[in-house]
Design goal:
Radius of gyration: 13 Å
Helix content: 40-55%
Distance between the termini: 19 Å
CATH topology: Zincin-like
Largest sheet: 3 strands, mixed
Order of helices and strands: HHEEEHHH
Strand content: 15-25%
CATH architecture: 2-Layer Sandwich
Number of strands: 3
CATH class: Alpha Beta
Number of domains: 1
Structural class: alpha+beta
Length: 104
């Protein structure tokens, strides 16, 4: 079960969230942040800016799910994370582009 299954319509968003033990929370986030994901007590929390349009919310959810699917939250060394943020963001974006190209 993965993002590809979700995009193909083979599973629902709820199915994938249950699979990853994740939940989505809509909050007002600072202007430059559309979404973020973190793990607490083995639950992934995906925060999405509630002021985004429907389509930007969908895109941001896919991006944050990509961080989970790519195991990026377990990869980073906390002392060096600030130096690798752009790398992880680019990897998540490229992963979603790859999935959409494979399906499309």
């Amino acid at each position: 079960m993965n993002i590809s299954n979700l995009v193909k319509g083979e599973i629902s968003q709820k199915d994938l969230l249950n699979y990853y033990n994740a939940t989505i929370i809509y909050e007002e986030l600072p202007n430059s942040i559309q979404g973020l994901v973190f793990k607490y007590d083995s639950i992934f929390f995906i925060l999405i800016d509630k002021n985004l349009s429907y389509y930007k919310k969908r895109k941001t959810i896919l991006h944050e799910l990509a961080h989970i699917e790519l195991c990026q939250l377990e990869q980073y060394d906390k002392d060096l994370f600030a130096l690798k943020v752009n790398k992880y963001e680019d990897e998540a974006d490229e992963y979603i582009k790859f999935i959409l190209n494979e399906i499309g």
